[in-house]
Structures are given as C-alpha cells and as structure tokens.
Amino acid sequence: MQTIPKRRLCVISFDFKQPKGANQSRKTRFFRELYGYRQQIKQQLKSGQVVTRTYYYEGVLDQVPHAKLGKSVLAVQPGTEEPILKLLRAFGEVLFYHFIGWIPISFWPGSQDNEAIAASQLINQFGYLSVLVLLERLGGVSQEDSLFNHGFDAGFINDALDYLTKMGYLMKTPERIECTPSGENLVYTMTK
Question: What's the structural domain count of the chain?
Fold first, then answer.
C-alpha cells in the first residue's frame, strides 16, 4: 500500500463572528486586504475618447505562498504565517484558528509535481541510495520528517533507511539521520 506524500504546513481557518460581529464595509475591507482587489476607472480624454484603466492592489496573500484548502481555510509554509495572523488580529470581529499539520502535498500548488518527480528521478537513478544523495544535498544530517517533504513515500524511506543502516552508509538515531564517511564517499563517487 502506497502512502500519500505529505508536507508540514500551517493551516489557518477564519470566519466572521455571528450573528452581528461585522458590518459589510468591514468585511469588504478585510477581504480586500487579504486577497487584494482590482479597480477599474473610466477616464475621458481631451479628445473625448473614454478609456478604462485597471489597477490591481495586492493583498497579504499575494506576498505569501499559500494553498486554498476550502472556504476561508488556507495553508502556508510554517514560519510565513505571521503577516496573515497580524491581519486577522487587526479585525477583532474575525474568529480564527491556526495549527501546524501534515497535509497531502497535492494541496500545495506545483509541489506534488516538482517534488514527486524529483524523488521519482532520484529513485530511478539510485534506488535506495537516492536517500543518501538527498541527505548529502541537505548537508549530510537530517531528520526523518524532512525526507517526507521531498516527495518520498514513507514505505520506501523506511526500507531504504533499514538497508542503508545495515550496509553502514548511515547512522540512524531517534533524533536524526546522518551519513557515515563511507556513505559520503559513495555519494561523491555516484554523483561526480
């Protein structure tokens, strides 16, 4: 059974307090500040011709990579949520929650393709040794959780870690995974 690759994300959900927490103008202002908005202005030139100019005003989400999970629910990379939380705190009539969770990477725009393809290419080229290659790219030391963030299947990671530990290419402790000198030499030989 193949598990779905997951990514660690901060999930934020919000809603206006009911029954009468906010008037319509405050809601409009909030959504404009969050999502941004377009404004079209018609202008008459001296020649009599009427032109329409469109202006776009950015919202907070234009500056923070995010995925929309549902109505008033979005996910962002952990550590990038503060501008959104600051906006939510500024509107006292908005009730919100946030937490860090593991979300299938298919919800993150473009990441499933890029990360799953990158992991698949490494696996096709190096098999179990692809975990060593990834560890070397991460600086030789990592936590098991970070391997999931790169599109690797959980079953594959467990099998690869067992094999590589048995072969003496890496050391695995509850806190971290580390390449041994022979593992580093093997990666250097494979990738040069």
Answer: 2
